[in-house]
């Protein structure tokens, strides 16, 4: 069993390389072991390209070893024709006799079918090694498909006395993130499909919301502009990256900007999240301001929150959002800064 954990841990590690590009597919990793040696490894690199199992099998130098190998994979091999042929068929074709699976596919229409196919072909199949960790790995995917909304991460920086980032002292914003922690912020950006700010933040901070201090593509930008009050000269409307605008009023068309009407007589956040779901945006980073963040918290509409505390006293300004004191969090020290990391219990456990 020790062995099984070791290789499944490696699968999870590999899978995480797909964090920025696998979506909307789940992150998956696979390892092939023969005579207690890893002879192949792979992960799902990019949506539309080869699955983890295919990459692992391709990486094996001597394919004759496959006939007496075990393949470890963090998620049940697929059994249906999607953009690529089913992995369960490939494993059967390559005559791999033993398959160890982290967790079954969470969707009822496919759950267990890959496993059944492998068993029907006479293969030994073991399911549930590091199951919880493997499910955690794909929590964005599970949340998106079961709750029909993106996986929501809240992020802000606050002063030691609880005021929010980007306060204006004498008209100039005070930046609470340090140059090092803003790298982390940009890393978070590229790990999400979309990024959202409220009207006030868009108007006063004029953020570009692109990824500059890290590698990777910029997320789709999302802003609320109920009464068409935002200036078209803002960076959000520069056309360099797609921007979605939630609004009640008609706007003039602009390059790379989509206006999405919202019914303000109803709850607005669920409508907005549904619109992102329809556009297949699997994860959302909410960067502010305080009112928008607090409305997500009050609606219980969030999955993770990262709060950076700067060793600075501001004494006044917009109060930082507040998450209930009962909510447990982990503290980490990154580049000398305190980060609180909250994570909601996984409410989207399907099956
Ligand atoms: Zn597959």
UniProtKB/TrEMBL annotation:
Residue span, CMP/dCMP-type deaminase domain: 2-126
InterPro entries found in the cross-reference section: APOBEC/CMP_deaminase_Zn-bd, CMP_dCMP_dom, Cytidine_deaminase-like, DHFR-like_dom_sf, Eubact_RibD, RibDG_C, Riboflavin_Biosynth_HTPR
Alphabetic keyword roster: Hydrolase, Metal-binding, Multifunctional enzyme, NADP, Oxidoreductase, Riboflavin biosynthesis, Zinc
EC identifiers of the protein: 3.5.4.26, 1.1.1.193
Cofactors demanded by this protein: Zn(2+)
Record field: catalytic activity: 5-amino-6-(5-phospho-D-ribitylamino)uracil + NADP(+) = 5-amino-6-(5-phospho-D-ribosylamino)uracil + NADPH + H(+); 2,5-diamino-6-hydroxy-4-(5-phosphoribosylamino)-pyrimidine + H2O + H(+) = 5-amino-6-(5-phospho-D-ribosylamino)uracil + NH4(+)
Comment on bound cofactor: Binds 1 zinc ion.
Recorded metabolic or biological pathway in which this protein acts: Cofactor biosynthesis; riboflavin biosynthesis; 5-amino-6-(D-ribitylamino)uracil from GTP: step 3/4; Cofactor biosynthesis; riboflavin biosynthesis; 5-amino-6-(D-ribitylamino)uracil from GTP: step 2/4
SUPFAM superfamilies: Cytidine deaminase-like, Dihydrofolate reductase-like
Pfam families: dCMP_cyt_deam_1, RibD_C
Function of the protein: Converts 2,5-diamino-6-(ribosylamino)-4(3h)-pyrimidinone 5'-phosphate into 5-amino-6-(ribosylamino)-2,4(1h,3h)-pyrimidinedione 5'-phosphate.
UniProt record similarity statement: In the N-terminal section; belongs to the cytidine and deoxycytidylate deaminase family. In the C-terminal section; belongs to the HTP reductase family.
PANTHER family on file: 2,5-DIAMINO-6-RIBOSYLAMINO-4(3H)-PYRIMIDINONE 5'-PHOSPHATE REDUCTASE, DIHYDROFOLATE REDUCTASE FAMILY PROTEIN (AFU_ORTHOLOGUE AFUA_8G06820)
Identification of the protein by name: Riboflavin biosynthesis protein RibD
